[in-house]
Amino acid sequence: MADPDPDLTGTTTELLQALIRRGCVNDGTASSGHETRNADIVDDVLHDLPRTHYEPLPGRRSVLTTIEGSDPRAPTVLLCGHTDVVPVNADHWREDPFGGELIDGEVWGRGAVDMLGLTAAMTLAMRRLADRREPPRSTVKFLAVADEEAGGTHGARWITEHAWDDVACDYVLTESGGMSLHTPDGPRIVLATAEKGLAWRRLTVRGTPGHGSVPYGSDNALVTAAEVVRRLQAHEPATHLSEHWRTWVAALPVDARLRTRLLDPGWVRDAIGELEPRLARYCHALSHVTFSCNVIHGGTKTNVVPDTVSIDVDIRTLPGVTDDDVDRMLDEVLADLADRVDVTPAVDPRPATASTTDTPMFDLLRRRAEAVHPGAEVLPWMVVGGTDAAFFRQRGVPSYGAAMFSPEVSYQSFQSRFHGHDERIDTRSLGLTAGLYLDVADGIADAAD
User: Fold this and answer.
1) Which domains does the chain have, with CATH numbers?
2) Element (H, E) at 180
């Protein structure tokens, strides 16, 4: 495999360290994120380029810059990278999660893989393009966007709804993709072409307040909420074996017996349980609507029986599953408790989305992946979380999760670092990813001819 440009690798590494150290933590509240801090860094790097700022709420700033291509007939590409990160429990990290330290060729810190590393690579690719004497044939836009980690309400969703003409394009590249899945038949490079839908709900359980010293027979909302959580955890939605699922299973490093069971609707649940735990979690999510009870609020004082408890449930849907379908599933789970629970959306819902692989852009990405990873096969992949690609796919724009990680970054290790402890990325992957974005800027016009 060819070495990435050392200068591009070095500057991308330094920029990632700076982005991590700003600590733009998005906890889901409107007042969090403070992405202006990372937007300022992007502004500094691209200081001489025309830039547009979007700030629907104070502190939630996104930055757009454009390099006009020389050929008006060539496709326009948008690089979309977010500048916020999820919260972190520093007590469980080996290193300071906001230190951005370079240790043994890896940058450590929250956001290193999700997705400040890619955002840094996009920024430096734009810097390189701007410094050339001649522009690329294609117009290239770069959106450093806020609020991706809470559904894009103050970021990509707001921009695509209020300033679509600014970000209109023919293709979008964002997270996630470019990791290696090692199989007995050789490596597979995953590139995201689809993602599950978002249907978060807040379940507010009602009870009757009373004194904590006389709990017998009380209508304790917390006790009822515990039963609601138990039911959601035990609920088993129907299995959906889509084409993405069949393609994925065909590439898995499993024996023929297990592969056959994974493709059999009657056996797939048991078969998933035989997989390595991290792989099993993804496989279950790829084949099922999922419900995860992740936040609970309730009670006011130790000696007061709580009358309300709220449960925030992360619900992810598969293609074809509507918001009404989700409500029907919840009605089924709650059953006799339904009249004691108020169900409200916790985020603007969005359906599952997918992009065709029959495009010049995907062909170009495939060729670049095969050039960097000789002998590897590219595997279209469904993201079971959410990305800003959804907002562009809903407007008909083919959108792909595309980076270029070194062979040492396996799919499994990537997934364990995503929102996990000790998140980090190697500098080689940073250089390869920045190089990929330059290759796309230079090559998409020819690919589309």
Assistant:
1) 6-184+352-448 (3.40.630.10), 197-345 (3.30.70.360)
2) strand 177-183
